[in-house]
Specification:
- There is one protein chain.
- The chain is α/β, with parallel strands linked by helices.
- It is built from 13 helices and 13 strands.
- It has helices at residues 27-39, 53-61, 78-85, 108-116, 135-139, 141-147, 161-170, 186-194, 208-220, 251-255, 257-262, 286-294, 312-321; strands at 17-22, 43-46, 66-70, 99-103, 125-130, 151-154, 174-178, 198-203, 226-228, 231-232, 241-246, 274-277, 300-303.
- It has a 4-stranded parallel sheet, with helices on both faces. The chain has a 4-stranded parallel sheet with strand order 6-5-7-8.
- Strand 1, helix 1 and strand 2 (43-46) form a beta-alpha-beta unit.
- Helix 1 runs parallel beside helix 4, helix 1 (27-39) packs parallel to helix 6 (141-147) and helix 9 (208-220) runs parallel beside helix 12.
- The protein is globular, with a radius of gyration of 19 Å.
- The two termini are 32 Å apart.
Length: 324
């Protein structure tokens, strides 16, 4: 449950704004990390019809003044919006009411575009992923937050109209694709290229766990090392911590994106990878393929969620994989 608090749990100071999305589906919340980066805040998740206790606690504890809801009323209801708008900042009647701003479109791709094109947003590099499934976009969350690269969601078999509009409106010149051709087809990359945008490379593996490993390798590869295509490594400092999340559902890894991107306040854990297991009880191939290469710097494995999400056995297997 504490993972729903995202970056807020790592801060004891006031946070002027918060981004809120439904915890019952993934597309809107995937879009939220880019907005959170630009606002300097984190992502909170809620039920559709009732503000989650976790979200409410963080809004109160951090004296949040403005809440940005990502998604339409079918995702986060008008009742939740009204509940927040009736709250005083810090739950103190002497303070002003909380301001609420909703960003939404008619579809998940429309909402993604509304977030990416929020006034003041601009980028020359973007990340493109399928909006029809979540794993690939999950593990690139730390990069979206740390680098401020917009995550642009598209149909898997064709470049959605909203995605094309977003890329052009932002002035994007370079794109990084996450996920193999089964997730983002060659027709999509061709359509992006036809817009005059360079597709620098595709980060993908044989399954979701290995795609996560490919993203982690990119994050920590040297800026002079070509990872795939013309894509160079990000050159992040060798990680001391590796986050492990179950890869068959999305909430835990999703809300940890900002935390992994900037690190817990005062801990120096900025730029840490998120790796995925196959399931709560199955490690999968991705972590064992990645961990040995990072073994000289890794000192901690942090599981996201309770043992129902990452079992003790899976955590121990992840720790053992560091030794190769």
């Amino acid at each position: 449950a504490s993972l729903f608090n995202s970056i807020f749990a790592a801060s004891t100071t006031s946070v002027s704004s918060a981004v809120l999305a439904t915890g019952l589906d993934f597309p809107d919340a995937l879009s939220a990390n880019y907005l959170a980066k630009n606002l300097g805040t984190g992502v909170l998740l809620t039920d559709t019809n009732t503000l989650s206790t976790y979200a409410m606690t963080q809004l109160v504890n951090h004296n949040v003044a403005t809440v940005y809801i990502v998604g339409g009323t079918g995702a986060v209801s008008q009742a939740v919006q009204n509940q927040i708008a009736a709250m005083h900042q810090g739950n103190n009647p002497a303070n002003p009411l909380v301001n609420v701003i909703r960003l939404a479109g008619n579809t998940r791709y429309g909402t993604n575009s509304a977030v990416d094109l929020f006034p003041g947003m601009s980028a020359t590099t973007a990340i493109v992923a399928t909006g029809q499934n979540f794993p690939d976009a999950l593990t690139v969350g730390p990069v979206v937050y740390a680098k401020g690269y917009p995550l642009v969601l598209t149909l898997g078999t064709s470049l959605s109209t909203e995605a094309a509009t977003t890329l052009q409106s932002l002035g994007v010149r370079n794109v990084i694709v996450v996920g193999g051709t089964g997730a983002v087809s060659s027709a999509v990359t061709t359509a992006i290229t036809n817009l005059g945008i360079t597709v620098q490379g595709t980060l993908a593996g044989a399954d979701r766990t290995q795609t996560a490993a490919a993203i982690a390798n990119w994050e920590f590869a040297s800026t002079s090392t070509t990872v795939t295509g013309t894509l160079l490594g990000l050159g992040w400092t060798a990680p001391t911590n590796m986050y492990v999340a179950r890869g068959d559902i999305f909430p835990d890894a999703l809300v940890a994106g900002p935390l992994a991107g900037v690190g817990a306040v005062g801990t120096g854990l900025a730029g840490q990878p998120i790796l995925l297991s196959n399931s709560p009880t199955s490690l999968g191939a991705g972590i064992p393929s990645y961990a040995p290469s990072a073994a000289t710097s890794l000192t901690t494995v942090t599981s996201l969620g309770l043992t129902g999400a990452v079992s003790i056995g899976t955590q121990l297997a992840a720790i053992a994989s560091i030794a190769g």
